Task: inverse folding
C-alpha cells in the first residue's frame, strides 16, 4: 500500500511541477488554481492505474531476484 501511495504522490508532484514550468498553464496563476487543475477524476484514474502497474512490476522483479 505504501508503494502505491508513493507512486501516486510522485505522479501528482510531477503534474504540479509541470504546471509552473514555462509551457504550463500555471504561469502567473496561484498554487490553489494549479492544485484544482491537477486533482481531477481523470488524473486520479491515471495515477491509480500507473500505481497498480508499477506495484505489479516491482513485485514481479522482487520474486525473480
Result:
Amino acid at each position: 500500500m505504501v508503494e502505491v501511495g508513493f507512486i501516486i504522490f510522485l505522479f501528482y508532484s510531477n503534474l504540479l511541477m509541470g504546471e509552473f514550468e514555462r509551457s504550463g498553464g500555471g504561469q502567473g496563476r496561484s498554487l490553489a488554481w494549479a492544485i484544482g487543475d491537477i486533482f481531477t477524476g481523470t488524473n486520479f484514474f491515471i495515477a491509480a492505474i500507473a500505481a497498480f502497474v508499477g506495484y505489479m512490476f516491482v513485485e514481479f522483479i522482487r520474486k525473480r531476484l
About this structure: The mean pLDDT is 91. The radius of gyration is 15 Å. The first helix runs from residue 2 to 19.
